[in-house]
Amino acid sequence: MSSAGRLSTFLLFCPALLWLGLLIVAPLVDMGALSVSERVSSDEFRFGFANYATFFDEPVYWQTFARTAAFAVIVTASTLVVAFPVALYIAKQSKGMGRVALFTLSLLPFWVSELVRTLGWMILLRESGLISGLLQWLGLAHGRVELLYNDGAMLVGLVYGGLLFMLIPLINALDSLDDNLVEAGLDLGGSRWTVMHRIIIPHAMPGIVAGSIVVFMLTIGNFATAVLLGGKNSLWFTQAIYDQFITRFDWPQGAAFGFLLLGLSSVLVWLGLKLSGQSLTRSLQQP
């Protein structure tokens, strides 16, 4: 490549490099340096790993992270169960304007912010909300029912929030599935479950992995939905990070917790890829 070509390529990538450098890499480097700063006095710090040791020394912190990670796995699996039939129908059954309409309806709730969607669920689930009133009208409840501030409400909100991020890679993967393969499987005597298990799911696996990674990382790092629907006692790890930064003004401790969240969640994603026999490269390069 000529020098002019190399210069053109560099200029082409400059905006992306500036974006990554100034808005992602630089803040991470600064937060990493802050996380290894031990407070000696009100205005004096020294290098050390005491902030990280606090995570392992205090059971409430690593237990909260373990609970958050386990709940994120449940949310990811639930989102996959809900999204897969919808994605399969949109990719293989709907045609023309019907497909556009279904995809638009899936996209429509995400035209507003996460906070607005969460507040909408709070209105529906509160004791004077629509669902409580419907249960009373049907005779299934004799008084107002409080459906907020529990793990069930948090699960519903987080699954709803991750649905689109699971749908898009699934539709993309299933759209490339040859219909003749499905018909051949059925013609050869395979049941619908066998065709689903042996043909459709393996073909969609890159989309499943890509969607699961995105939903898991968004869920484990979620703050607004988990706190607003789960309540103050939801024991969500991002709440612990928020408390360190905003409530206690202990920024080095909050930075350490943030890095631990990033590192431990990345390890969990890597373990998930190993257990599923997939690779991140293949998932990102799905057709």
Describe the structure.
There is one protein chain. This protein is mainly α and about 290 residues long. It has a single domain, classed as MetI-like fold (Orthogonal Bundle), CATH 1.10.3720. Helices cover about 75% and strands about 5% of the residues. The protein contains 13 helices and 2 strands. Helix 1 crosses helix 12 and helix 2 crosses helix 12. The two termini are about 30 Å apart.
Mean pLDDT: 85
What's the number of extended β-strand segments?
2
Strand content: under 5%
Instruction: Provide the gyration radius in Å.
Output: 23 Å
**CATH class term:** Mainly Alpha
Biggest sheet features: 2 strands, antiparallel
User: From the helix content, strand content and strand pairing, which structural class follows?
Assistant: mainly alpha
Which architecture per CATH?
Orthogonal Bundle
Secondary-structure element string: HEEHHHHHHHHHHHH
What is the topology, as strand order, of the major beta sheet?
1-2
Work out the helix count: 13
Proportion in helices: over 70%
Name of the CATH homologous superfamily = MetI-like
Question: The CATH topology is what?
Answer: MetI-like fold
Low-confidence spans: pLDDT under 50, at least 5 residues?
A: none
How far apart lie the N and C ends? Answer: 29 Å
Coarse morphology: globular
Task: Supply the number of structural domains.
Answer: 1
